[in-house]
Amino acid sequence: MVRNRVDRTREKRTIAYFDYTLMAVLIFLIGFGLLMLYSTSSYSATVKFHNGMFYLKNQLRAYVISFGIMLIVYVFDYHIYARLSKLAFWLSMVVMTLVFVPGIGIEAYGARRWIKIPIFGQMQPSECMKIAIVIFIPTLICRIGEKLNKKEGAICILIWGGIAAAGVLFLTDNLSTAVIVMGMVFTMFFVAHRKTKIFLVIGGAMISAFFLGAQFLGKIMEESSDFRIRRILAWVNPEMYTGEGSYQSMQALYAIGAGGFFGKGLGNSTQKFFIPEAQNDMILSIICEELGIFGLLIVLLLFSILLYRIAFVAQNAPDLYGSLIATGVFAHIAIQVVLNVGVVTNLLPTTGVTLPFVSYGGTATVFLMIEMGLVLNISSKIKVEV
Within its chain, how far is the Cα of 190 from the centroid? Predict the structure, then answer.
């Protein structure tokens, strides 16, 4: 009897794990995004000098390239990226400075945030910092070790995070991406730190300060010409500023209201003719108009499953470095989804943050797929007993 039990124990072996659910949800999100992108942008043939397949073709090309890059990232062991993390951090800083170089930097919508790049035409260099943070901060946390729980360790992480966020803000004038970068750093720091109470207090204070500050600005700074202040004013009182900063938000709310619970039907949106660049950060409003609140719930469900699988990989990663990389990717996608949904529903001021895997954007797609390649790489190192 005892021998049989011993033999059965010896028969147990481990196999490499691959998160097929994560991959399936990712593919479904991408397919859904492409469908909604075509539905949202196909009308552009009537108002622009290109056919209705313009945005869809560009996005398909971006996904073909990004799948290849994701495969390369997946093949190489993720520990290799720790050696390149500091170089990636400073290289991201250098790339962001290119917005000031004549002939390379591009100014659009009143901001200088883009640079010219072959194949894709242009890109936001601040996207590079998101990838750099995902691999650099975990490396830093692992090197600090137990000092992370002391004052000097916490200061070190927050300083590096502050440098990254400041670089994004002052070099590319992109506040929303700076917030996302700092949020990613804060989340990884929170997961690695022993104490949680202090983070909850700080987080609650920051959220309260944001909403109180917005209300305060709405009352005393109505004469300001700063575009960020005008966005906050438009958010606080959208009806008053319909002709200025709140036009896009108001049209998005009309689209959500017109869709009801089950929507008007795929391709039947009318607000896409009025919402500027609806295929970008406001594509969720068109989803709500065409597929209704039901469509919104499906989108949120898909993102919930995606985030759950990323969290699973983070929890079961073979080491702290892999766990923190997956945590950083989780934070990036989660923060961006929350910001986008908040802006579309006018719960937050307009930020220009896109909806991952759904909104139009070639370079953003490539960087997101690199992150997914990292998560799948980590998942393949998980061992499962059979």
Answer: 19
Alpha-carbon gap, residue 91 to 98, rounded angstroms: 11
Nearest C-alpha neighbor of 269 from the set 40, 44, 71, 62: 40
For 298-343, the pLDDT digits (tens) are 999 999 999 999 999 999 999 999 999 999 999 999 999 999 999 8
Q: For the chain, how many residues are written?
A: 386
Residues 49 and 74: their CA atoms lie apart, in Å, by 39
Which two three-digit tokens encode residue 95? 């790339």
Which tokens go with 385? Answer: 């007993």
Q: Which two tokens stand for residue 293?
A: 């609140």
SS3 breakdown of the chain: % helix, strand, coil, rounded to 5?
70, 5, 25
Catalogue the E-assigned strands of 3-89: 14-16
Closest of 110, 163, 184, 133 to residue 352, by C-alpha: 110
- In the chain, what is the straight-line distance between the N-terminal and C-terminal CA atoms, in Å? 22
Amino acid type, 192: A
**In the numeric block, which tokens belong to residue 308?**
């759950």
pTM for this entry: 0.86
Helix (H/G/I), strand (E/B), else coil: 76: coil
Alpha-carbon distance of 66 to 68, in angstroms, equals 5
Residue 312: left (phi > 0), alpha (psi -120 to 50), or beta?
alpha
Instruction: Please name which of 28, 183, 164 lies closest in space to residue 95, comparing C-alpha atoms.
Output: 164
Angle subtended by helix axes 320-344 and 126-144, to nearest 10: 140
DSSP β-ladder status, 111-117 and 383-385: unpaired
66-97 confidence digits (pLDDT tens):
999 999 999 999 999 999 999 999 999 999 99
Residues pairing with 111 in the sheet: 108
- Do 313 and 326 meet the contact criterion of CB atoms below 8 Å apart? yes
